[in-house]
Amino acid sequence: MTPSKRLxxxxxxxxxxxAIRILLLAGKLARQTTSLVSPSHILQALAxxxxxxxxxxxERSSIDLPAIVGMPPxxxxxMLDKIPMIxxxxxxxxxxxxxxxxxxxxxxxxxxxIGTESLVFGILAMTDLPECKILTQYGVSLVSAKExxxxxxxxxxxxx
Length: 160
What we know:
By secondary structure, the chain is mainly alpha-helical. It has helices at about 15-35, 40-50, 55-60, 65-70, 90-105, 115-125, 130-135, 140-160, and strands spanning about 5, 15.
């Protein structure tokens, strides 16, 4: 079943609902320290938000997510499903991350909508990002992330 897709307000890009919720969580995290969503906020949201392809890729890479991004802050307890739709202000790197992730998603044949896997691909495509370097230290690369996603998709097909 294909997830619902919709435009993120103000972006003109098509996102899966799960990716939108992850970006909204990143926005909530950003408002605690700064006004703009950074790649760090996106990585934290992927680790702490609802499970999707993005987190599945990271988990299949045997990454100790709490060691990288810490534990979720107390203010998130019970609020992950209640994040209101707001206008997101992304920093330049986050905009670039989303654009590159979208291209990589097309490359693996997942269509035009940006999903949580696109966010992981975007982080890994930006090799100068500290977040990419951290993931690389744990053995995660753009190639291994795409392979992990492909394995997960094959397993879902076998089960279903």
